[in-house]
Amino acid sequence: MNHLPLIIKREYLTKVKNKSFIVMTILSPMIMIVLISVVAYLSQLNNDKVRTITVLDESELVENTFKNSENTKYTILRDISLEDAKKIVKETASYGLLHINKSKDIDAISNDIKFFSEESPSITLISDLESQLEKKLTNIKLQQQGVDVAMINASKISIDIAQESFDGEKTSKIDSVVKLIFGGIAGYLLFMFIIIYGNMIMRSVIEEKTSRIIEVIISSVKPMQLMLGKIIGTSLAGITQFVIWIILGGVLMTIISLVFGIDVAEMQTPQQEVMQQAMANPDVNTKVENLITAFYNLPITNLIIAFLLFFISGYLLYSSLYAAIGAAVDNETDTQQFLLPIMLPLILAVYIGLFTVIEDPHGTVSTVFSFIPLTSPVVMLMRIPFGVPIWQQLVSLLLLIGTFIFTVWIAAKIYRVGILMYGKKPTYKELIKWIKY
Amino acid sequence: MSNLLEVNSVSKNFGDFKALNNVSISVPKGSIFGLLGPNGAGKTTLIRVINQITMPDSGSVFLDGVILNSNHIKDIGYLPEERGLYKSMKVGEQALYLAQLKGLSKAEAKTRLKYWFERLEIGDWWNKKIQELSKGMAQKIQFVVTVLHQPKLLIFDEPFSGFDPINANLIKDEILRLREDGATVIFSTHRMESVEELCDDIALIHKSNKILDGRLIDVKRQYKINTFEVGIRANDKLALQKELSDKFEVSVANFKTLEDELKLNIKLNNNNPNDLLNYLTNKGMVSHFVELIPSVNDIFIQTVKNN
Fold this sequence. Notes:
The complex is a heterodimer of chains A (about 425) and B (about 300).
Chain A lengths: L3 H14 L1 H30 L2 E7 L14 E6 L4 H10 L4 E5 L5 H5 L2 E4 L6 H22 L4 H6 L8 E2 L5 E2 L1 H38 L3 H5 L4 H38 L3 H5 L1 H11 L1 H16 L2 H29 L7 H24 L4 H6 L6 H8 L6 H29 L9 H9 L1
Parallel strand pairs in A: 1-2, 1-3
Antiparallel strand pairs in A: 3-4, 5-6
Helix pairs in contact in A: 1-9, 2-9, 7-9, 7-12, 7-13, 7-14, 7-16, 11-12, 13-16, 13-17, 14-16, 17-18
Chain B lengths: L2 E12 L2 E12 L3 E5 L6 H8 L7 E6 L2 E2 L8 E4 L11 H11 L4 H14 L15 H13 L5 E5 L7 H16 L3 E5 L3 H7 L2 E6 L2 E7 H7 L4 E7 L3 H11 L1 E4 L9 E6 L5 H9 L3 E7 L4 H11 L1
Parallel strand pairs in B: 3-8, 3-9, 6-7, 7-8
Antiparallel strand pairs in B: 1-2, 1-4, 4-5, 9-10, 11-13, 11-14, 12-13
């Protein structure tokens, strides 16, 4: 008798009806949105604060360089000693005092610039001042040596190397970023999914053991069916939760930006600011076009199919391991020793994805780890946007599915013995013995 | 009478440990079959083999003449010793789920559940969660779930544990009624008085081997010791005891009577009990004359010790 649909239904419904599941489903996106809004609001507050910088330029070369901006105001002091200037700055609650010493030589001036402040100043402010000063002083020095600055500026050339594959496929730097984002999201999604719902499967197996219902169930259902039913039912609940999160998150985001007028979206993604600037600037307008073509350049069909296949097989591989662990132990505290060896390849995969694949998507390390079954789902998903030959994808997938079937077989063995074992904290040696039963 | 269940020389090893060694049992149709044995003897393994939870290394099991297969799941109802229910699931939902796993349709399961819940007067529990019920209440649900699909073979492992005497009696009556309706029952317990009361057949498993089986009454005959418990009023008890000791194998008996009598166990060696009775009536007034039948408890202890 095939009870799989019945088991899936029960697993799904008990998960979905569970109070903490409902609370998590509804609360998580709210908490996320509130956090994002708070951060956005705070950074807005921070940006709104106007800093006054007092400048004492004894060289009188750079004082007219500083232009008041939205967040920074400059007060220029003249004909005053440094000590007096410091006093004034302290009294006026100015953010700090920039002091440029007097000298005939530009190099000497540039070596004797100081910033005085109560607290250590913000790094961005200092580097901003530095770049302004550098620019100004360089220009002055160039002029002193009789160079026409206007000519230099006019001769500046900007290079953007156009990339093209041998097949004539055009790409750009932005392409790589888009690919990276796509691959990163896919890989990270799988990683999160495995951890959250793998644990959920494990807990559900342990629950059946501790409530001692397992023997009743197992007299009507094959352990393999029960295990698969659990994995599939829990995964469906997981997908439900994810979809609700995405929808709820989107709706909340819209509501918050409408009601509070905080441009959450803009705050959240600095890229959008770049895009807006790009719109204003005709020079960069082509870059936006590049961004759009970058999306079209992605191997979309390949990406979607590969995502589904690698995601499902990778997830099933890990979740069967989680189920086996759940069956092997009596309570959650005993799971640690078994969880570590399956967490390691998973974390390794994410790190390889984040560091190696970005550096060199088709290098030896990336390629090898996109074939090794335990790391391949994550690494391959991150590589695919960069264009992986179909044969490589197929070999990796076949290896993965082969391992998955083998793992499920092993896990089912551990499962069918483990679920009826009580009171013993099993060792690895014992698990191997169970496989042989 | 034909046998519903035939277990033929089943063996099962767990690694180096032999859980069952060449065990065969036959369970007659319509009987209550007591599966006895000390802790760790292999009873549970045998029950799990019958339930297809554990696959035997060798040997075969036939149910109703057909070799055991997955279609038999609906023919067997199993109440394990280690039992429980999903704690956070509602009673009704849970019972429906378990019944459907045994092959009942949802509608059919619902009708039968309603009937049983009314019968055991637990109808108002339908929407309660198991964690809100007491242990005995949960046991009742478990019992209903076990018998709901009207299996040919019922296997109860310690069915009375956790019940108060009233409910234990209720369950006992239900088991007897189920047998009358045609079910065959395998009954595993350490409570020998219920074996005595309920079982038609028994099998005794010890250290992975079956060491005794048969109809309970035959087993008792086999263990009969031809001894009678006798109470007699005599003037000179000591003299009488001495006289009897010369003729028979005699030991002092212990039982309660109203008067001060001579109480003896007298073992006959192929003598007719009537001869003994006649002999005794000449010596005094016989107030007590009972054949000592070995109890299941005695047989159990004796057999296990001898092995």
